[in-house]
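sorry for the late reply, my laptop died twice this morning and i had to redo everyting from scratch. anyway the thing you sent over, i finally got around to it. pasting the sequence first so we're on the same page, its 154 residues, then the predicted structure underneath. double check i copied it right bc i was rushing
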Amino acid sequence: VQDQGSQIVAALAGATHPQRFSGVVLVDGGLAFPSPPELDVDAAVTAVIGPAMDRGMIYAGYSAGACVAGPDLRGIHLMDDPDHIPEGYDAGMPAETLGLVPFRIVPHWRSDHPETGRAEEAVRWLERHALDYRAIRDGEVVIVEDDGTVEVRS
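ok and here's the structure:
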C-alpha cells in the first residue's frame, strides 16, 4: 500500500526526533472490530488521549485508526467484518470508539486501495441512514479546528 511508506517515515521521524513530534498520537490501521478485551475505552480516553488533546496534542489515525475516532462504527461494518472475532476476544464484546469527532470517517474512498469498493458501499449505507460522515481518499486528512470547523485536506 502506498501510504505504508509515509507511516514508516512518520514512525522513524518520531523515534529519531521525539522533541519535534511529542505532540502527536499516531494510530495505525488494522481491523476496526473489536477493541482489546481488557480495554476500558472511556478510561483510555480519560487517562491518555483526552487530557493530551486538551494540552494541544494531535490525534492522527490511519485507516481503522481514523475510523475509531468517530462516535461509532456504523457503516464501517461494510469494510471490516464485525463478526470476525480474533482468538482471545469475547464474541459478546461491544465495538467501542474514542468519540473524538461527531461523525464517522470512511477511509480509502476512491483510492488506489483494495478496500475502495467497500468504502463506496459504506458511504452509500451512511447516506441511506442519514448518518454524518467524512469520506477521505488515501493521502487526505480531516482537520478539526478548535472552533469545531471541519475540513478535508490533501
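The beta strands are 24-27, 58-61, 104-106, 133-135, 141-144, 150-153.
thats about all i looked at so far, will dig more tmrw
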